[in-house]
Amino acid sequence: MTRQEPPHAKYDRLVRAAKEVPSARTAVVHPCDESSLRGACEAAEAGIIVPTLVGPAAKIKAVAREHDLAIAGFEIVSTPHSDAAAAKGVELVREAKADLLMKGSLHTDELMRAVTSAEKGLRTARRISHVFVMDVPTYAETLFVTDAAINIFPDLDAKRDIVQNAIDLFVHLGLGSPRVALLSAVETVTSKIPSTIDAAALCKMAERGQIVGGVLDGPLAFDNAIDPKAAKIKKIRSEVAGRAQILVVPDLEAGNMLAKNLIFLANADAAGIVLGARVPIVLTSRADSVRARLASCAIASLEANARRTGAAPRAS
Questions:
Q1: The CATH number of the domain where 220 resides is what?
Q2: Which residue in 23, 29, 204, 249 has the fewest CB atoms around it within 10 Å?
Q3: In Å, how far are 63, 98, 110 from 92, measured between CA atoms?
């Protein structure tokens, strides 16, 4: 495929859109290294978030001094350690003092343990899932990959929520009604590959209104999901084949490998967000570029604003 537009233009549009909505109050959980604290500072400087830094105050201030990061205008809620920071960040959301959660330098498992707590967490009726929103220079579409970080081997019911979470996000970002490809190794239904049966069932669930807001097709192999020529050779005729915007993977292993292949071999940026909780959750990595960190915050801010107002940016 040839490049359709300048590199990173897709992310730039999302960041511009986020600057046009109110800055999201964000509990930044345990930002105790340069990467996580700098990410919060950059997003605040861009006008996307208003951070509350949650964690050991002395350690946060020491990181800021060491790396010349301006945090004087940010509220700091001091906690003794990362577990306490995760619990406090969730508490701020429950008290309506934060619109977003943002992962700092703690492990994802620590943060998600607080989020998924039965008594004091942020669970909803929807399954929690992760979406990579990817800016792939050689692909014309903003590409979603889900789930590559939370659900290891999701069953059919979990996949229904994973698909719906991704569709809702796509719509809330003002990108229109998405084309959703349900990936497997092949494009035919066979009992030998259970993910093909799940894909077929998900398509039927969409026909019956159990999944709404997007157009589904599957099973599709990766090539005929994103390449029109591959779809044509296989004689697959659908609105989705060759033009997918959301790629739903069979399991976490497949999704993680797919996303990292795109990042390291196709020079893609990957913004990460967790959905299905009371508020969007920004998952950043030390390896993220500045643009990817800003895009993650922008996506979460737009999602929070759409939930709050019922309005999404104009599709672009």
A1: 3.40.718.10
A2: 204
A3: 23, 6, 17
